[in-house]
Design brief:
- The structure is a single chain.
- The chain contains nine helices and twelve strands.
- It is an alpha+beta fold and 426 residues long.
- The strands form three sheets. A five-stranded antiparallel sheet has the order 2-1-5-4-3.
- The longest helix is centred in the middle third of the chain and has 65 residues.
- The model has no long low-confidence stretch (mean pLDDT 78).
Length: 426
């Protein structure tokens, strides 16, 4: 591949040579044309002179004087008698006329005429001028012209070279987010190419950003799945260990009281495992077609939930409120919201029911604004190091409320606590 600089000099040399060749051919042919016209005019003037006088005036005595005065030669045929200023006129009689000929090492121009029954030829000798000075000036003019053409070529070359270098730098960083501008060129085609390159860069950057978002989502999902697997493993390990140990003790012990305690322990751990599988089943299989819609008092449902162990720090406020929903699923929503609030709040949690609206308020550390939109996503956990949560609680809440035509409202202030609320149809 040729470099831009080499290509420029080759192109300039080629065009300079071609221009010089055509310039020489044009000037030389134009000089010959002017010379021909000049001596054609001379022949016409001599012929007019001969016509003004009379051809009968010319004889062997005065033809040489006429030739010397006019700087031309004549061949005159009068009544079969030839009079000429040339000794070997026979050689000139049949030469081609109206054309400068090289004859006997001389350049001549011949033209034949006829008048009053007399045929005659006029021969002139184009004088070869000394054109050395003329060609000197022509060459000087050509070199000056060539110099300005070179400057023009060089300016164009620098512009094109600059544009190409900018394009190379641009292409090297075309996948970079950094904005790189391409300067406007004097060439329209380069400006069009620059515009297309900028569009391509914009598409590449947007595609990269999109791919990065997808990659981040995949990485986050993988991390969440890893955390879920770890949490499930942890949750399964404890009940299974207790069951396994209880079974081993049952095989060895004969004490009825101890056996009853072990069987009760196995039952509790089995119930825990059953709750875990139900929770996972809710997340992946719950849908609108499986709803069991009925009317019930959500305030009474809250009272029922708070009777369970672990909910002693919850303060219930409000009044009776009838809603139309799937009671079992709404119970899961309430349990999840209350459990989350208790987990992050050292103080009492306030549960309020009024006009089909349920509000759960805690006084914990609060949630950062950029995390509020994330906490309802599947497998998301505020504390990524925690193994006691699947990151499914609030996702399950959001999904259950969604199929009921409702949504979860979350507001939080860091250091002051959080509020979760939803409203159901009456």
């Amino acid at each position: 591949m040729l470099k831009t600089r080499t290509a420029f000099f080759l192109a300039f040399s080629f065009f300079a040579f071609i221009f010089a060749l055509f310039f020489y051919i044009f000037v030389n042919s134009h000089l010959n044309f002017l010379l021909f016209k000049q001596y054609e005019q001379k022949i016409k003037s001599i012929n007019d002179l001969l016509s003004f006088y009379s051809l009968t005036f010319i004889n062997e005595d005065n033809i040489k004087a006429l030739s010397k005065q006019s700087r031309a030669d004549f061949i005159i045929d009068k009544n079969g008698s030839v009079i000429s200023s040339l000794q070997d006129y026979e050689l000139y009689k049949n030469l081609e006329e109206n054309k400068i000929l090289n004859f006997h090492s001389k350049n001549i121009l011949v033209k034949n005429f006829s008048k009053d029954g007399i045929s005659y030829s006029i021969i002139v000798y184009p004088r070869l001028l000394n054109l050395d000075s003329f060609w000197f000036y022509v060459v000087c003019f050509y070199l000056i012209f060539l110099f300005f053409i070179f400057i023009l070529f060089f300016v164009f070359f620098k512009q094109v070279s600059k544009n190409i270098n900018e394009m190379i730098l641009f292409l090297d960083s075309i996948d970079s987010v950094k904005q790189i501008s391409l300067k406007k060129s004097i060439f329209k085609d380069i400006n069009i190419l620059n515009a297309k390159l900028l569009k391509i860069k914009d598409k590449i950057v947007k595609r990269q950003q999109k791919n990065k978002k997808q990659s981040d989502k995949i990485a986050l999902r993988n991390t969440q799945l890893s955390n879920v697997i770890s949490a499930i493993s942890h949750e399964l390990k404890n009940p299974l260990s207790v069951i396994d140990l209880s079974v081993e003790l049952l095989k060895k012990e004969n004490d009825k009281v101890l056996k009853d305690e072990l069987l009760e322990k196995i039952q509790r751990q089995s119930f825990k495992l059953n709750n875990l599988t139900n929770k996972l089943n809710f997340v992946f299989n719950i849908n609108k077609e499986n709803l069991n819609i009925e009317k019930f008092d959500i305030f009474k449902l809250c009272e029922k939930i708070l009777k369970n162990p672990g909910f002693e720090r919850v303060v219930l406020n409000g009044e009776s409120s009838i809603v139309k929903a799937d009671e079992f699923l709404i119970e899961q929503v309430l349990i999840n919201l209350i459990s989350n609030s208790l987990k992050y709040s050292q103080k009492d949690v306030v549960l309020t029911v009024s006009n089909q609206t349920v509000t759960v308020r805690d006084f914990g550390e609060g949630i950062k604004e950029d995390s509020i939109k994330l906490i309802t996503k599947k497998f998301y956990k505020l504390d990524s190091k925690s193994n006691n949560s699947f990151g499914l609680g609030l996702f399950l809440v959001k999904k259950i409320l969604s199929i009921h035509g409702s949504y979860l409202e979350i507001s939080s202030l860091v250091g002051q606590g959080s509020t979760f609320s939803f409203k159901l149809k009456g």
